[in-house]
Structures are given as C-alpha cells and as structure tokens.
Design a protein that fits this description.
The complex is a heterodimer of chains A (706) and B (197). By secondary structure, chain A is mainly beta. Chain A is built from 8 helices and 40 strands. In chain A, strand 36 and strand 37 form a beta hairpin. The longest helix of chain A has 15 residues. Chain A starts with a helix and ends with a strand. Chain B has a 7-stranded mixed beta sheet. In chain B, helix 5 packs parallel to helix 6. Classes of the chains: A mainly beta (706), B alpha/beta (197).
C-alpha cells in the first residue's frame, strides 16, 4: 500500500512540468536516455533492466559531482549492495552482508576495460588510491552483484566490477589538474583525448597519467605489548605517531586506443606504500611495499556474416610485489639483540587469448548463442628472504619459494532467448580447468519479465568459484606446512527482484540468498594439533598455521533503492540500502561474520545551480555495527559502532578564468575505528585501524582550449 | 629440433590469429555503441519531436533501413532494427512501415525518398565512402536521416545519431544537416542533445 502511494506520488511529481503532451513524451525520452547500457553481465550491450543480474552504473559525472577519489568510494557511495571500508594499507570490499577480511579483494573480479586485473599469486585487487587508473579518464563503472563466473571464471564470487575508461571522442582535448587532501595528500594528473584517422580508419586515443604523494593522515597508536626481545624483555608496539607508515607514492599511466574494430588498453603503474603487518616493528622507516604492474589488453570485434560475430581478446600482464618489513620480535627474529629484515618478493605474469563466437540465429537478437574459450598461461616466482638488518647478511636460505607455471582453460556457453517482447531468458554455464583441482562448472539461469510499462521482474540462479591463489596452494615455510589439495571456494545464489521506472525515476527491490562453501582460511594450530601434526611426520617443527578449506557462509537479505532526477537532470538523487542476515560456519559452530555490516546503504543529492553558480552535492553512506576481526578470540565479542560518512562537494567553473574549474569536498565520518585489526594484537582488547574523521579536499582542473 | 618446431608452430599460430583479425575488419564501425533496439525506441520518441514529421509522413510513417551490400555488419544491424521497429505499436502516433533496402547510389536514394514519401532513412554501417554523396543528394529533401555510426552525424552525413557516454545513451544532432533536410526538432530535444552546427 505504501509502495503504491509512493508510486502515485512520484508519477504526480514527475508530471509537474509545463506542456502536458510534450512533457509526457519528454519523460519517455528521458527514461530511455537514463536507462543504463551495461555490457558486463552478459558480455553483450543491453539495458540494465534486461541484464541477467542486479547491476549499478556509476557515471563519470557521478564521480566528479560527488567528489569521489577512489574505486572503493565510488562503489560505497554510489552503487547498490556493495560496502567498502578504508584501511591504512588497502581498501576492503564486501557485498550483501559478506566480507572476507584480509582477502586482498579477491572475492570480487575487477576488470579494466573488460580485462581481468586479479593476478595469480594472491589475486590481488586494489580498490583504493593505488588502483592505477586516474578516475578523471573513467567513463563509467559497472558493478554487477552476485556470482559471475559463468562468463568470467574465478574470483567473481561477490560480484564483478568493470572500470571502463573514456573513449578519445568523449574525452576530447587536454586537461591537467591537481587534487589535494589538505596537508596529507597531493595528486597531480593529466589527460588527453583525441579522434583521428589511422591508415584511413577512424580512431580514438585516450591517455591518462597520475602521480600521488601522501604524507598522512598520521595517527597516534597507543603502546601495546608486541612479544619479547631476544633478551627476554618485553617489546612494545605503538606509543607514538606513525610518521613513516603514512607515506606513499604512486604513479600510473593508462592508454586506450580504439581503431576500427580494435580496442587496446595499455596500463602501467607503480606504487610504494606502507606495510602494516601484525609482527613487524612499529613505524619502521624501512618497511614498505612496492607494487608494479604492466598490462596490455586487445579486444577485437568482427562481424563475419549477418549471423556470426567473433569477439577476440588477447591479453598479457606482469605484476611484481616486494614487501619489506623489519622485525625484532624473538618469535620471528631469533637473533640476539638484532633486527631482522624480511623481504617478500613475488612476480606474476600471465597471457592468454579468449575467442568468443556469437551466433545470432534469426538475425534479430531474439535467439543468440554465445560460446567462448579462454586460455591463460600463468607463471609465478616468489620467495621470502630474511636478513640481518644491520649488516644485510642473509640469516637463512629463502623460504616460501614458488616457481610455478600452469595453463588454465575456461570454456563457456550462453543462450539468450527472447520469446516475447515482455520475456527474456538467459542461460549459460562455464567449465574451468585448473590442474590443482577437479574441473568446476559455473551455471547461471536468469529470466526477465517486463509485464507492464517500465516494470521488470527478474529471477536469477547463479554459481561462481574462486580458485585458490598460488600463495594459498604453494606457499610454505618450516612453520607453515604446504596445504593439502585445496578445493576452490564456491558460491551459489538465488535472487529475485522487481524494478519500476517512472520516466527518469527508478525504484528497485530485490531479495537474495547466497551460500558460500569451502572458504579458504588460515587454520591456526593449537599446541595439541601442532604436536599431533609433528608426530605424524608431516612437519619437522611445530607448525603455526596452514591454508585450509574451513568455512561456509550463508547470507539472506534484500537490496532496495530509488534513484532519479528532476528538472532536466539539474536535481538528481539516489538512495539504496541492503540488509543481510549472514552466518559463518566453521568447525561445526555457527556465528555472525566478522567485519561485515548487517545493514548498510548510501544516499545522494545534487543540484546544478543556474548560470555560473556551482553544483552542490551531498553524498552519504552508513553501516551498522560490525564485529571486529577475529572477534571470537576476545572477551565479549567486541564490535565497532554504526557509522555514517557524509561528503559535501561544491564544483564549478572558476569565475573569470576560462577553462579552469574547481571542486571542494568536506568529508566527515562519525566513527573513529574500523573493525580490522592492526598491530600485534596480543593484548586483551583489539587494536583497530583508525579512521580519518574529517578531511577537506580541493581539486583544480584546467582544460586547454581546443 | 623440438624447440624449433615448437617455435615455428607458435609463430604460425600468432600469424594465423593476426591474419584472421585483420581480415575480419574491412570497415570501421562503432564498437560498444547504443543497442539497436534502444536506438529504435529513441528514434520513435524523436520522430514525435520533429515538427515536420506529420506532414512528411502522411497517414503512414515509412522507414527505409539502408544497408551496404556485402557488409555483414550492415545487414546484421538492419535486421535488428527491422525487428525493433516492427515491435513498436506506433511512431509519432502514426502507423508505420519499415523496409530494408540495399544502397545503390545516393541519387537513387533521394529519388526514392521523394517518390515514396519516406519519412526516416536509417543508415547502417559501411557508408564511410558514400557519406558525402548521400548528404549532398538529400539536401532539400524532407527526410529524417539517422545513422547507427555516431561519426556519420559528426561528419554531416546524417541528422541524428546515438552515442554511448558513461554507459548512457546520448542523442547527437547535426543542426546544419537537419536544416537542409527540413527536420525541425523541438528546442527541448536540442537542449538534451549534443548538437553539431
């Protein structure tokens, strides 16, 4: 009844524009223009309403208008069903009540221009400031919720995020800019976009470059016990402001060339950032993490006949990570009165080809078969070395050595059938071969019914998996035994949704039930199990932990949202919320998930003032209270309280300075801590990652005359 | 010897792949554009905003979807558009007919538009070389020309096109071409369109 009243209300507001007949047509036209076109859900350009998944589209205008600086902020403030949390060294993402702490983001599949970013060593995703794509050249971001392995294979457990860079014709011209978080961070950037003819073929070029330097924010950490020194004295951690560990530098260049039927994305990035390990010394000047990446992706689309089209994708990438940490704790550095320096290096390289023939049997899009084969050759080199920090002398031979290559192959098929104007069916499955485990089949079946004007009902069943990373499969030291054969993590989801559009307004409500099994986690040996492990001859020393398939998760809940615009898009708004009841089961006991919010959402309002006046925007997001990481090990299952984050942004052209524009944001967070642990965490109360409660950001952009 | 044979096979595979890719792209076209079904719906809405459409169309609005011979993309797009237009109940409040027509030359097209009172000509892919001639021949002919390739609008070969920016459809209008072909779009449409003068 309330929904009906709201719908009637919206129709009433929507028709309050002059010229009734024309206004009605305008509203229909606006509705069509506002309908997002997505490609990620089914690898086909289609409207968001008909896509076989729940998806959100974040536009470049949204990013600019709401003062968004990172991918994590973008999905947290502007997408449905995704919740991000900013940590000192990276950002974490969860969806629909599920968040796997310290997963390096590898339960989301991250695509940049349709090419996978997750590398094989740890399937690392960077959602924060080290993404390696200047947001100023992002055209839009597609966020697809739920399992997506049917087309993409591993990692698409919680969802798929596709960052699409702008085409040269959209970006046209040269721009330079700088944005700064007052007193903590500065990021100069430049972009260029152009159209031209290359060998007589219409072509477009996009280039984006950025450099980031951070000197903060700097936090004070209370003193806490961090173990023992070799002399037997207690070692403390914290008790000071972390100056060294707040510094970071990064740079990235992204180039996209579209020429004829080819679409090439070339990306290079590098960053040096702080390390926050649980055993390292506090604020060590030597502790740093260096990440570098170079990738190329080439897409080609060929229409061979009016029935057959072939999409081909070639890709190659190299990433390396070097993590240096200094440790004085005797448990990890058994040298008398010395500090050890641990150097963890890994290199991942992969290259492959994906061929995807598409058969449009009746030449009208009503019965389309897509098949595809995606073969990837991968290799990883990794090792951990320990040195005497003073002399630089190795104190042991390398451990955790991985030198492994393999070939993974995925084969998939998808059938789209539109038997009637109001009904669209999508079914498909993918088989993935990986030498480490039995083949995995990931099916998806979806039906979209559009029974009345502007309305859509969706039902979706889908499964996905995450293959163990090379680190999980092959990393071992004397204290960390090699795992047995690990099974891939799997997820299965059933969801239903209803959506209604009223001109430029959209209301959405969906329910879901998701099951995840075989989640890979560290099995921490207790003294008894360690002794038994040793006794069985499976280790030469008492083991500390081992990677195992340990946990399963069930999550049931709903997503809801409303968004739209009035007054020819001058006033835009959005509101979304998700509530999930999620439980994790391990060792026969079931409990709530750590770090994941049960309820979260976001809201936004913006208004474009007339003439030379600025655009005003207010974005908000919130989360319910969350249990801290490893909460079961602390008395009383501690949690952090609910929070709300508010961001007000003013943007516009600088008066009397043609080509110069500005953006000023103020960000406030009501919480002081995240639920993620930081430091040695040996005390009875957990030490938690701090939150920057108030931040002001200023940005300037200059657009060169064309 | 095994290494050499393996390397040779690899080179052959690379050449084969590149050869296939090169062969399959005879003409430039838009990749990642607005879905054709959506283009047809947008066209129907825009037709209602052309002040001259009712007089031009008469009792039945006629649409010609123009294809380039031996161009698979063009044929494919035309088939999609045909189905999408057939699915529409009415366009600008009028009943409508749609036909796929193979392009011969620009003069013949202009003559056909005049004699058959065609209201909308939809250009599909493959007309890069013919664009100037089509534009010139339609000067003074009352017809709404639409292109599946946004660049055709930019180059002045069609009045209207659609582009995908930030994952949403944008209307492109070439105002000079619109004037030459007697297309008078409402100012409120021009306000939300990207206009090329």
């Amino acid at each position: 009844m309330r929904l009906r009243a709201l719908c009637v209300g919206l129709i009433g507001v929507g028709t309050l524009t002059p010229g009734r007949a024309d206004a009605q047509v305008d509203q229909d036209l606006s509705a069509l223009l506002d309908e997002p076109v997505v490609t990620t859900a089914s690898s086909t350009a289609e409207t968001g309403t008909s896509a076989p998944a729940t998806s959100s589209t974040i536009t470049a205008e949204d990013l600019r208008r709401y003062g968004i600086h990172t991918l994590q902020e973008a999905v947290s403030f502007l997408a449905v069903g995704v919740a991000g949390q900013h940590l000192l060294d990276d950002d974490e993402l969860g969806a629909r009540g599920v968040e796997i702490s310290s997963d390096a983001g590898n339960h989301f599949l991250l695509l940049i221009d349709g090419h996978k970013v997750n590398e094989p060593y740890q399937s690392f995703d960077l959602f924060g400031r080290f993404l390696g794509v200047p947001l100023e050249i992002v055209d839009h971001i597609e966020v697809v919720l739920g399992p997506g392995s049917v087309l993409y294979g591993s990692n698409a457990m919680l969802g798929v995020i596709n960052v699409v860079t702008a085409r040269g014709k959209t970006l046209q011209g040269a721009r330079v800019g700088v944005y700064a978080d007052i007193a903590t961070l500065v990021r100069p950037w430049a972009s260029f976009g152009s159209t031209f003819r290359l060998f007589g073929v219409a072509s477009e070029l996009t280039v984006g470059v950025e450099y980031l330097h951070a000197e903060g924010p700097k936090y004070y950490f209370p003193s806490e016990l961090a173990g023992l020194l070799p002399s037997g004295q207690e070692l403390t951690w914290g008790g000071a402001v972390a100056n060294n560990s707040s510094r970071a530098d990064s740079g990235a260049i992204v180039t996209r060339l579209i020429t004829g039927h080819f679409d090439v994305t070339l990306r290079a990035q590098g960053s040096v950032s702080p390390v926050w390990s649980d055993f390292g010394d506090f604020d060590s000047p030597e502790a740093r993490r260096t990440d570098r990446g170079l990738s190329i992706g080439i897409k080609h689309e060929a229409t061979l006949s009016s029935i057959v089209r072939v999409n081909t994708r070639l890709y190659a990438a190299h990433t390396d990570h070097d993590i240096v940490d200094t440790v004085t704790n005797v448990d990890f550095c058994p040298l008398t009165n010395m500090t050890c320096r641990f150097d963890t290096r890994s290199q991942s390289r992969w290259a492959g080809v994906e061929v995807q023939p598409v058969f449009d049997w009746f030449r009208d899009g009503r019965f389309v078969t897509m098949v595809g084969v995606d073969a990837t050759a991968r290799g990883v080199l990794a090792k951990v070395d320990a040195f005497d920090d003073v002399t630089g002398r190795p104190i042991s031979s390398s451990v955790g050595v991985i030198d492994h290559s393999d070939l993974i192959v995925g084969a998939y098929g998808q059938q789209i059938w539109i038997p009637a104007r109001w009904l669209e069916l999508n079914g498909g499955a993918r088989f993935d071969y990986d030498e480490r485990f039995a083949g995995v089949v990931s099916p998806r079946v979806a039906a979209t019914v559009q029974p009345w004007k502007g309305g859509a009902l969706k039902g979706i069943f889908s499964e996905a998996f995450r293959a163990p990373t090379f680190y999980e499969s092959y990393f071992s030291t004397p204290f960390v035994p090699l795992p047995g054969p690990l099974r891939p993590e799997k997820t299965r989801s059933v969801e239903g949704s209803i959506e209604q559009r009223f001109a430029a307004q959209r209301i959405f409500f969906g329910v879901f039930h998701t099951t995840m099994t075989d989640i890979i986690q560290n099995f921490q040996f207790d003294p008894l199990s360690a002794a038994r492990f040793l006794q069985q001859g499976r280790s030469t020393v008492l083991p500390l932990y081992q990677e195992r398939n340990l946990e399963s998760i069930d999550s049931t809940g709903y997503d809801a949202g409303i968004e739209g615009s009035f007054a020819e898009h001058k006033f835009t708004y959005g509101l979304s919320g998700t509530t999930a009841y999620a439980r994790a089961t391990a060792f026969g006991s079931t409990g709530p998930l750590a770090v994941a919010p049960r309820t979260f959402g976001n809201a936004r309002l913006s208004y474009v003032l007339p003439d030379a006046w600025p655009t005003l925007a207010l974005a908000a997001r919130w989360m319910s209270s969350r249990l801290v990481e490893n909460y079961a090990t602390y008395a009383g299952s501690p949690s952090v309280p609910a929070f709300i984050e508010l961001r007000a942004t003013v943007s516009g052209d600088v008066p009397f300075a043609h080509g110069l524009s500005y953006r000023v944001s103020a960000n406030y967070v009501s919480s002081e801590r995240t639920p993620f642990l930081v430091g040695p965490t040996l005390d009875r109360t957990p030490s938690l990652h701090p939150v920057d409660p108030f931040r002001v950001t200023v940005g300037l952009t200059y657009e060169f005359p064309q | 010897m095994r290494l050499c044979a393996s390397a040779a096979r690899r080179r052959f595979a690379i050449f084969l792949t590149l050869g296939l890719l090169a062969k399959a792209s005879p003409l430039a076209a838009e990749i990642g554009g607005v879905p054709l079904g959506l283009q047809a719906q947008l066209t129907a809405k825009l037709a209602a905003h052309d002040k001259g459409m009712a007089a031009r169309a008469g009792s039945t609005l006629k649409i010609v979807i123009l294809i380039k011979r031996e161009n698979a993309e063009s044929a494919n797009a035309a088939a999609h558009l045909l189905t999408a237009f057939e699915a529409l109940d009415s366009i600008a409040g009028l009943s409508h007919q749609q036909t796929v027509l193979a392009f011969t030359d620009a003069r013949a097209l202009a003559a056909l538009v005049r004699t058959e009172t065609i209201a909308i000509v939809y250009l599909t892919q493959g007309f890069d070389e013919d664009l100037d001639a089509i534009g010139a021949s339609l000067d003074g002919v009352s017809v709404m020309s639409i292109a599946t390739v946004p660049d055709y609008v930019v180059r002045g070969g069609a009045v209207i096109g659609f582009d995908l920016v930030s994952g949403k459809s944008k209307i492109l209008v070439n105002l000079a071409r619109a004037r030459r072909q007697g297309v008078q779009l409402d100012s409120n449409v021009l306000m939300i369109a990207t206009v090329f003068k």
